Amino acid sequence: MRRRRFELAAWIVLETGKPWRESDADVAEAIDFCHYYALEGLKLQAEPLHRDVPGEDNLYFYEPRGVAVVIAPWNFPLAILTGMTAAASSPATRPS
Fold it and tell me: Are 19 and 80 in contact (CB under 8 A)?
C-alpha cells in the first residue's frame, strides 16, 4: 500500500469524488491500521497468558472465530474497510 499510495488515492478521488488531500489521508490511515494490527498480531502470538488462582489452572489464548464481513462506508472507503478487515484477520495463538 505504501508503494502504491498515490494510485490508491487516485482511485478514491475517481470513485468517491473526495479531494486529493482527504483521499491521501484515507490511504495513510489504512496503512497505519495495517501496521498497528501487524504489531498487535505479534503480541498475540507470544506465549499464552496464565491467569492462575489458587486451586485452578487457567490459560488465556486467542483463536480464530470464522468468516468476517465488512461493508465499508462511502466516506472512508479504504481506511475503515482496511481497519476492520485487519482487525478481524489478526493472527491467533494456538493453545500449547
Answer: no
Residue 37 has a CB neighbour count (10 Å cut-off) of: 20
Answer for the pair 9, 27: CB distance below 8 angstroms, yes or no.
Answer: yes
Inter-residue contact 30 to 85 (CB < 8 Å): no
What's the DSSP call for residue 48?
P
Residue 78 CA to residue 29 CA, distance in Å, equals 8
What's the pTM?
A: 0.76
Mean pLDDT, the chain cut into blocks of 10 residues (96 residues total): 96 95 97 92 73 76 76 88 84 46
